[in-house]
Automatic annotation (TrEMBL):
Protein's name according to its UniProt entry: Nuclear transport factor 2 family protein
Region forming the signal peptide: 1-19
Domain of life: Bacteria
Record organism: Chitinophaga agri
InterPro entries with a match to the protein in the record: DUF4440 (IPR027843), NTF2-like_dom_sf (IPR032710)
Any Pfam family the entry gives: DUF4440
Keywords recorded for this protein, A-Z: Signal
Domain DUF4440: 26-134
Lineage: Bacteria, Pseudomonadati, Bacteroidota, Chitinophagia, Chitinophagales
SUPFAM superfamilies hit by this protein: NTF2-like
Length: 140
């Protein structure tokens, strides 16, 4: 019993370090999204999403399935940098739900000359093939 307790106590600091590294990587992913959006580069913005037909994006018009369909919707809704504006995220909550999966809640704001937009989002982000990718996005 003491040996088991010793192992748990020994592993605890490494678990914390792993969680901190994961949180930092996810914040970097969201920063890449912000930077790509603000450069008007939707292809780079979409590189943070899981390139799969199983990606799900839920917006005001309901769910969209698949990476390509999500990119197509973005391109239709934001055809140029005027429509895109400048993106800012506020992360409200980040929770690890498994060693390779995080749940993120935040607020988004688009500053635009044609009128600002804002709302909230929830993301499910998973590490696949060594990279963190958004696998589900609910933005409203």
């Amino acid at each position: 019993m003491r040996f088991l307790l010793f192992l748990i106590l020994l592993a605890a600091p490494f678990t914390g370090v792993h969680a901190q590294r994961s949180a930092s990587a996810i914040k970097a992913l969201l920063q890449k999204q912000t930077d790509s959006w603000n450069e008007g580069n939707l292809d780079s913005f979409m590189s943070t999403y899981w390139q799969s037909d199983s990606l799900i994006f839920i917006g005001k018009r309901g769910p969209t399935y698949g990476w390509q369909a999500t990119l197509d919707n973005y391109k239709r809704s934001y055809p140029d940098t005027t429509a895109m504006g400048k993106l800012h995220f506020d992360i409200l909550e980040m929770k690890s739900v498994a060693s390779d999966t995080w749940f993120v809640v935040g607020k988004w704001h688009l500053a635009r000359s044609i009128g600002d937009l804002e709302g909230h989002f929830s993301l499910l982000i998973r590490k696949t093939k060594g990279q963190w990718k958004i696998i589900a996005d609910h933005s409203s």
